[in-house]
Amino acid sequence: MGFDPVSEAKRIEKEIITWRRDFHMHPELKYQEERTSGIVEEHLREWGYRIKRVGTGIIADIGEGEKTIALRADMDALPIQEENDVPYKSRVPGKMHACGHDAHTAMLLGTAKIISEHIDEFNGRVRLIFQPAEEGGNGAVKMIEGGALEGVNAIFGFHVWMDLPSGVIGIREGPFLAGAGIFGGEIIGKGGHGASPHETIDPVPILAETVLAFQTIVSRNVDPIETGVVSVTAVKAGEAFNVIPERAEFKGTFRFFKPEIGELIKRRMEEILDGITRAHGARYNLSIEELTLPTINDKEMAGFALKVAEKLRLRWREVRPTMGAEDFAFYLQKVPGAFLALGIRNEEKGIIYPHHHPKFDVDEDVLYLGTAMEAALAFDFLR
Ligand SMILES: [Zn+2]
Ligand SMILES: [Zn+2]
């Protein structure tokens, strides 16, 4: 390598932090990333990237050659009121970068700058993907439909990670984040007077039975060596103390690492609802939507990332899998790659709150390491 990615990234560290703070102060929700993507596009054009727009998303290419490596950042914020008391606090009431996507965008911008300054030394094409709507919007799918993976040989993405100490790179082969789905439905009985239950079909105990029976899916149907989650997170029935309601509603989420476990969970929910409601003479509706697939890192690509981290003399650790979900999974379905983590937990600075918490923050002093890793991944892959 004619250049040292770590010292190059360190050189522009202030810029990376400035970008991150600017994005942090101006958070935009999924598919509304107009300002953020505008700033990203302006810089990329200035640095000589060829730009293709996909709504508020950007596909940016630089260099030519047989191989293409893609690097991805997400840009969207969350509908959360920030509770941090920092100079770069969100200026938008009710919106906050509480997952660190501001940092992802800033790190990849830094990478973009370094690559553009050294593009003559790169033996191929680098594609940067700045995507919208990672938070429950499956922006990755829109980017893929827009051609983000055309001609791409490998893809990498970073997430800042509260479960790792600051500056530690988290690498894992195989399943890293879970597949996720949502379900919702209602039990339809027959309403009536609270004092005359025999003249009604009370949906409340039927729902209670259903919620408990759902707990047996993971404990009794899923192979104990495997893993899954079924969480009923909302129930609603009736208003008055003396009225047996007609309907009882519920919703929740399920998580899984293997598609067959996801299928099993879906099938069992349907069977349990069908059986319990029939036993009581009630009816039901159930809708299930699979949101995201499991994020499964390619073995070879995870190994490659590890070699790059070691070459840069960065600290790394095998990162624990989580039942959280990431739409990066959709890219990994199409091309080999790996989703990597950058530790940002710093007890001394009070940076300890989990992702999506109103006091979430990132240790900015390590963001340049993410930038360095991205630049090095691109350079080494294209060699
Ligand atoms: Zn998130
Ligand atoms: Zn995120």
From TrEMBL:
Required cofactor(s): Mn(2+)
Note accompanying the cofactor annotation: The Mn(2+) ion enhances activity.
Pfam families: M20_dimer (PF07687), Peptidase_M20 (PF01546)
GO molecular function terms attached to this record: hydrolase activity; metal ion binding
Domain Peptidase M20 dimerisation intervals: 187-274
Binding site residues for Mn(2+): 99, 101, 135, 159, 356
UniProt superkingdom: Archaea
Protein name, entry field: Amidohydrolase
Top-level taxonomy: Archaea, Methanobacteriati, Methanobacteriota, Thermococci, Thermococcales
